[in-house]
Amino acid sequence: MEVEFALDEADLVALARHHMEHSPAIRRRYRIRWIGVSLGIALMGALLYVFLALKAPAIYLCASAAFFLVFYPYYYRWLVARTMHRIVGARLNPKALAVRTLRVTPEGLEMVGSGSTTTRTWDRVNGIEITPERTFVAIDGEYAIVLPRLRLGDETYQRLIDTIRRSAGLSS
Fold first, then answer.
1. Which of 137, 130, 144, 109 is nearest to 172 (CA)?
2. Which residues partner with 116 through β-bridges?
3. Rounded CA separation 97/26 (Å)
4. CATH of the domain at 110
5. What are the residue ranges of helices labelled H in 90-152?
6. Residue 35: C-alpha distances to residues 25, 69, 70, 157 (Å)
7. Residue numbers of the domain that contains 124
């Protein structure tokens, strides 16, 4: 099966936002950084207090850990927003919005666009999430492909999604 479509700026922004908010690999890294760094700083403060009897540095480190624990989610949201602005800036690159072709082959998914071909085998396709306007396909735990539902047409879109699910062994 083969479909041809073009992405617009809204599709790229939606893919980036969905990638940052829902990809299992990104979420795991976020939690490790958020909780891990906070616990590490607090543990360092506790060790300074217990073993070296340094009360002031221990208090500062524990306060820094609490500050990081509270404000890291706000920083992360800011980071996501900054990434969105970079994606919008990428629209100046004609390759980002060029017409592309997605082929579903027995070996895997093949994306052809702007003179380059990318092939991903079915064992690397490990997730698909459908929203009312777009569908996101996860490759190696990160959402990497966006399919604009309205531009593909209902029948073509549904056949494509069913074929990807069946070929990758994903549940409905």
1. 130
2. 113
3. 25
4. 2.30.29.30
5. 149-152
6. 16, 7, 10, 40
7. 2-8+94-168
Dist CA 160 CA 117 (whole Å): 19
Kind and range of the H or E element at 100?
strand 99-104
Helices (H), 90-172: 149-152, 154-168
What digits encode the pLDDT tens for the residues 42-86? 999 999 999 999 999 999 999 999 999 999 989 888 887 787 777
Q: How far is CA 106 from the centre of its chain?
A: 26
Distances, alpha carbon 46 to alpha carbons 31, 33, 36, 64, 79, in Å: 22, 19, 15, 12, 30
Q: Are residues 86 and 20 in the same domain?
A: yes
Burial of 169 (0-12, 13-18, 19+ CB in 10 A): exposed
Residue type, 61: L
